[in-house]
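Extended Data, panel c. Modelled sequence:
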Amino acid sequence: MTASGRVAIVTGGARGIGAATAKRLAADGFAVGVLDLDEGGAKAVAAEIVEAGGTAVGLSADVADEAAVTAAVDAVASELGPPVVLVNNAGVTRDNLLFKMDVQDWDTVMNVHLRGAFLMSRAAQKYMIEQKFGRIVNLSSTSALGNRGQVNYSAAKAGLQGFTKTLAIELGKFGVTANAIAPGFIQTEMTKATAERVGVPFEDFVAGAAKAIPVQRVGQPEDIANLVSFLVSDGAGFVSGQVIYAAGGPTN
């Protein structure tokens, strides 16, 4: 069975890694539900896919809201067909040192990353089980290994790794795999915001990061989209419960 006719959902699909992933999966033959809190951005990415000859729908969804998640997943199923691929990419940062971090900054990051991945996976898995085929890819981060100023984000990204492994155990017998990708430095709006937070011009921030990476460049959203493309393919059916660090070199 090829990707043609299959349906994928990408959260946080309005920009960055999510947008690149949605476009790559569409090029692979998937019909794509592009979900994002930014409805205009989601619809714009979906329109780009359609203009390129693919099939897509853009929808607004707060992944931390149970009712909104159920409605969005069911809407994708109604408009495109049963979703058998889910890429949990939606994410936010609320960086600060521990003693400065307030509870809202902690809760916001946990809700989007962990609660969001839980709600989306729970809503989508029933369609995967019915089809006896499914692929879940969760976006973790090298920050899961620890990163100054990101106690909330690091904890959430580490949590996603345990979440992924448990999904793989529970859903494997239904033909569903679950894997996590942990990107290193990827050139996106999110890393640009980090540069602004630490007061470094983005070009200098990128150049400095590249020097510390063995392949001597920072990652692009397409680098992660290419890995997602493999993990959701038929050829990756024996790869499950894994955390793959995509960081241009080994990680500690």
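The first strand starts at residue 7 and ends at 11. This feature is highlighted in the accompanying rendering.
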